[in-house]
Design a protein that fits this description.
The protein has 368 residues and is α+β, with helices and mostly antiparallel strands. The chain contains 11 helices and 10 strands.
């Protein structure tokens, strides 16, 4: 019995070891198409880490990218994306009228703008061929707006679905097209929210560590509810640009929350008081982590266009979170109500979670 129990935390650690590097989902990007009176403006936003392998910045190979090297890489980044972007306007292929304009932000994103000297009157076809070079899980959020800034359509592109077409004639003011666009946006971001929580292993481990001390439905419900309220608040604040914290600050804090809860489980056992309030405080931090997904896609703004993605993304997170809780909670309650194994298993698993949290903390600070 004791030998078997000793194997539990070790097995748990190795089971999740392969997920250490993937604490967050694969890359995300965005593309905004603005149809002007006589031109088409295209703005593409990528995380620098998704581009560096194809447009290297570290020219002197010293493992550090200076501001001068980042500036020098702008033409190659613009050339790379221009070559991989196919734009067909009313049946005719177009190239950008001038080299793309590249800008960086403080979130390690590259924004590249292209201008095409014609505006679609009947049809628009776009293919983002650069996605074929990226990992299978990469997703690109495409938004098409008319001359008045009204959203005509939205779509989530991927490696196996990198093409978008739009028939403009007779459909620009179609309520049916607008409703379809809203439904598509809701479904895409709902799915993204589910995927994010199911592949966000740091958030899942945090939730697991919180729930590991519960014995019944009511304490677990309080923890899940307080976590939901807290991260929804900061997700909304960050998504609407009310509060903006850099990922370099938030991600290490998320790792610290995991370490703290795991250590508390070891020290205080399975009856810590006020766990829901601790959950609320730390949930505020995790909300900023969730918001980084929308920020990486370049859609965090004060415009009303953020509201639908924000709502559906959050609902997706909650759905994934509840699904995971519904699976693991009966197992946790059965273990915690078995006095022969509960104490040792809680400490063993909590120590494993603490080790993983420590790894993420080091990875996001001294190893970054």
């Amino acid at each position: 019995m004791n030998i078997q129990l000793a194997k539990w935390p070790i097995a748990f650690l190795f089971m999740l070891q392969s997920a250490w590097v993937y604490a967050h989902p694969p890359g995300l990007s965005s593309m905004d198409l603005s149809i002007k009176a006589n031109s088409l403006d295209v703005k593409v936003t990528f995380a620098l880490q998704d581009i560096e392998a194809f447009a290297p910045m570290d020219s002197d190979l010293d493992a550090e990218v200076t501001d001068a090297e980042r500036e020098a890489a702008k033409p190659s980044i613009a050339k790379l994306l221009a070559e991989q972007l196919r734009v067909t306007i009313d049946g005719k292929d177009y190239s950008p009228s001038e080299p793309g304009q590249v800008a960086y932000d403080d979130q390690n994103n590259a924004h590249v703008e292209f201008l095409y000297q014609d505006a679609p009157k009947q049809s628009l076809l776009l293919r983002s061929r650069f996605l074929a070079k990226l990992p299978d899980g990469h997703q690109q959020y495409l938004t098409v707006r008319d001359v008045n800034g009204k959203t005509l359509n939205e779509k989530m592109l991927g490696k196996n679905d990198d093409q978008f077409s739009l028939e403009l004639e007779g459909k620009v003011n179609s309520e049916q097209a607008t409703e379809h666009s809203w439904f598509t946006t809701f479904a895409d971001f709902f799915k993204l929210g589910v995927e994010h929580i199911l592949t966000g292993y740091d958030h899942l481990l945090f939730l697991f560590a919180l729930l590991a001390v519960t014995h019944s439905f009511w304490p677990a419900l309080k923890i899940i509810t307080f976590f939901t309220i807290a991260h929804s608040i900061t997700l909304a604040c960050a998504g609407l640009n009310i509060i903006d914290l850099p990922s370099s600050f938030v991600e290490p804090l998320i790792a610290l929350t995991i370490i703290y809860v795991a250590v508390e489980n070891v020290i205080r056992g399975d009856h810590p008081k006020g766990r829901q309030w601790l959950t609320f405080g730390f949930g505020l931090i995790h909300g900023f982590g969730f918001a980084s997904v929308l920020r990486e896609m370049g859609i965090s703004s004060g415009e009303t266009g953020i509201l639908m993605p924000l709502l559906s993304f959050n609902l997706g997170i909650e759905t994934g979170q509840i699904t995971v809780a519904a699976i693991v909670l009966p197992i946790i309650w059965w273990i915690n109500n078995n006095v022969m194994i509960a104490g040792k298993l809680l400490k063993g698993c909590s120590l494993s979670v603490c080790l993983m949290g420590t790894y993420w903390l080091l990875e996001r600070t001294v190893l970054s």
